[in-house]
Amino acid sequence: MSNHTTLQQALSELEKNKEQFEAVQCKSHCVVLAGPGSGKTKTLTTAIARTLHDEVIAPRAIACITYNNECAIELETRLAKLGIETTGTSFIGTVHSFALTQIIMPYFRCVSIDIPQDFKVANSSECRVARENAYKTIYIATVSNSSPASLEHRSA
């Protein structure tokens, strides 16, 4: 099934609900308030797909800011099921990843900020390891009555 056919099918399914269909067809700001399981994500996904299919032509793109990475993955998965490829024409992610990838990294060289070329945001596993290492360092410093800085120099 082609992208257009899949999208048309999704749009026709939403026509059954006037409010959802209006939200999908909206070409400006739109707020969707509804309870769990009412189809908010389906409505949003279909709206993004329609916008990408009908209105976004390179070099333009859209941004969809989510609360967490799981939401971003869910939206990208649903868009893929609609046959919509998001690379290059959209950003779907958290406000933090948007700021990093779309603002900070492309423009940090314009100001005197020394950010390493391989700079990245730590994932949850890397954060956990860093936190555990910090706790261990502080614990050892407390037990040995040393400052954490002096322990850092000894281990180097």
From TrEMBL:
<dbReference type="GO" id="GO:0016787">
    <property type="term" value="F:hydrolase activity"/>
</dbReference>
<protein>
    <recommendedName>
        <fullName>DNA 3'-5' helicase II</fullName>
    </recommendedName>
</protein>
<feature type="domain" description="UvrD-like helicase ATP-binding">
    <location>
        <begin position="13"/>
        <end position="156"/>
    </location>
</feature>
<dbReference type="GO" id="GO:0000725">
    <property type="term" value="P:recombinational repair"/>
</dbReference>
<dbReference type="Pfam" id="PF00580">
    <property type="entry name" value="UvrD-helicase"/>
</dbReference>
<dbReference type="InterPro" id="IPR013986">
    <property type="entry name" value="DExx_box_DNA_helicase_dom_sf"/>
</dbReference>
<feature type="binding site">
    <location>
        <begin position="34"/>
        <end position="41"/>
    </location>
    <ligand>
        <name>ATP</name>
    </ligand>
</feature>
<dbReference type="InterPro" id="IPR000212">
    <property type="entry name" value="DNA_helicase_UvrD/REP"/>
</dbReference>
<keyword id="KW-0238">DNA-binding</keyword>
<keyword id="KW-0347">Helicase</keyword>
<keyword id="KW-0067">ATP-binding</keyword>
<dbReference type="InterPro" id="IPR014016">
    <property type="entry name" value="UvrD-like_ATP-bd"/>
</dbReference>
<dbReference type="GO" id="GO:0005524">
    <property type="term" value="F:ATP binding"/>
</dbReference>
<dbReference type="InterPro" id="IPR027417">
    <property type="entry name" value="P-loop_NTPase"/>
</dbReference>
<dbReference type="GO" id="GO:0003677">
    <property type="term" value="F:DNA binding"/>
</dbReference>
<keyword id="KW-0547">Nucleotide-binding</keyword>
<dbReference type="GO" id="GO:0043138">
    <property type="term" value="F:3'-5' DNA helicase activity"/>
</dbReference>
<keyword id="KW-0378">Hydrolase</keyword>
